[in-house]
Amino acid sequence: MPHSASAKKRHRQNLRDRDRNRQIKSTVKTAIRKVLDAVSSGNLEDAREQFRGATKTADKAAAKGTIHPNRAARIKSRLSARVLALAKGEAPVAGKGRG
Questions:
Q1: What is this structure's pTM?
Q2: Residue 81, Cα to own-chain centre: how many angstroms?
Q3: Residues 56, 43, 50: CA angle, nearest 5 degrees
Q4: Rounded distance between C-alpha atoms, residue 19 and residue 55, angstroms
Q5: Of residues 33, 31, 13, 32, the one with CA closest to residue 21
Q6: How far apart are CA 82 and CA 99, in angstroms?
Q7: Exposure pattern of 41-66 as b/e (b: 16+ CB <10 Å)?
Q8: 5-88: what fold?
Q9: Domains of the chain by residue range
């Protein structure tokens, strides 16, 4: 446990920031999941709408420093490829995981 006043304050800040970062990361993951669900169901309009939301969410998380800007770009690129494949009527792009 921290002993000095400054260490106690830093500990409080770390706990608060950790909770905020977890919430933001969870929001990003949920947005990704919604896009992938829309793509897997074959609903192009819903996929495009969810993609716009996911893009905004990823950019906000990167701007706040919760995720790295390159990760936000990678998320947007991979989701965009899936939505474009759906628009062209092609098979979904294979990849590891959900994003």
A1: 0.84
A2: 16
A3: 10
A4: 22
A5: 13
A6: 10
A7: eeeeeebeebbeebbebbbebbeeeb
A8: Methane Monooxygenase Hydroxylase; Chain G, domain 1 (1.20.58)
A9: 5-88
Per-position DSSP letters for 64-98, written without gaps between them = HTSS-HHHHHHHHHHHHHHHHHHHHTPPPPP-STT
Over the stretch 36-92, which tens digit does the pLDDT of each residue have? 999 999 899 999 999 999 999 999 999 999 999 999 999 999 999 999 999 998 766
Indicate whether 33 pLDDT > 70: yes
Crossing angle (nearest 10°) for helices 5-41 and 69-88: 10
**DSSP line for 2-26:** --SHHHHHHHHHHHHHHHHHHHHHH
